[in-house]
Amino acid sequence: MEGQFIFIKEQYFKDFPDSQLMKNKEIVGGKTSGRPCFLAFEGDNNPEILWCVPISSQVSKYKKVYDDKMQKFGKCNTIRFGEVLGQERAFLIQNMFPITRKYIKSTYMDKNTSNPVTLPPRTEKDVVKHAKQVLNLYNIGKKIIFPNVSLIENVLSQGIAAEKEIAVSLQPNHGRNKIVQSLYPDVERKFHYGHAADAKEQTSGIPELEEDEPEL
């Protein structure tokens, strides 16, 4: 997945109650508007983890922030601008965060064409390039992303590994030992068939958001 607009399930914000995550409703003029969408792209380290850049219609607000940073530092890679469906929007790289695909509610579709909404290639390349640069800086200690994305990414990675262990433990016995030993050498000590089934049941029934018009 590269440069797709998505909506995120409310369950994500319950599982990761980071106060610096942007809410799943955009506030415009003191009023709650439609669900925001996010630009999602795959990270370089783990293709199972996607990185989401919030998009805001409050362009003038974020242009002031952008201009301040340009005056102070001569550059700003944490906020970018571009058109979405013909309207200028701010891409808030400073608020980016990781998710996995199970938290995706839907893809943002153009109601006039019934096709997924896309960015002009130049804008998409600019936003994704700067987002990856910011993430690299964050990973070497530059705290330029507001949410605690390293903690969230770590929890997501642990969840991915646990789900893989469960999937392996549920496979038929034929050939199972070879798969287990190659992927998870100590899985036999951690998982049993009954426990894996219980864990699988506990991951079902994720609540979803109500459908309404997005705010872009």
Characterise this structure.
Helix content is 38%, strand content 22%. With 216 residues, the protein is α+β, with helices and mostly antiparallel strands. The protein has a single domain (1-216), classed as Roll (Thiol Ester Dehydrase, Chain A), CATH 3.10.129. Strands 1, 4, 5, 6, 7, 8 and 9 form a seven-stranded antiparallel sheet that branches. It has a two-stranded antiparallel sheet with strand order 2-3. Helix 4 packs across helix 7 (193-202). The protein is globular, with a radius of gyration of 20 Å.
Say what oligomer this is: single chain
The shape is: globular
Largest sheet: 7 strands, antiparallel
The beta-strand count equals: 11
Which CATH architecture would you pick?
Answer: Roll
Encode the helix/strand succession as letters.
EHEEEEHEEEEEEHHHHH
CATH topology title: Thiol Ester Dehydrase, Chain A
Work out the count of structural domains: 1
Structural class by secondary-structure content: alpha+beta
Number of helices: 7
Round the mean pLDDT to the nearest integer and report it. Answer: 80
CATH domain class: Alpha Beta
**Low-pLDDT residue intervals, each spanning 5 or more residues:** 179-215
Whole-angstrom Rg: 20 Å
Distance between the termini: 20 Å
β-sheet strand percentage: 15-25%
Helix content: 25-40%
Overview features:
two-stranded antiparallel sheet, disordered C terminus, 22% strand, alpha+beta, Thiol Ester Dehydrase, Chain A, globular
Task: Spell out the blueprint of helices and strands.
Elements (H helix, E strand, L loop, with lengths): L1 E7 L1 H6 L11 E2 L2 E2 L5 E5 L6 E8 L2 H15 L5 E6 L2 E6 L4 E4 L3 E4 L1 E2 L4 E2 L4 H19 L9 H21 L6 H8 L3 H4 L2 H10 L14
Antiparallel strand pairs: 1-4, 1-9, 2-3, 4-5, 5-7, 5-8, 6-7, 10-11
Helix pairs in contact: 4-7
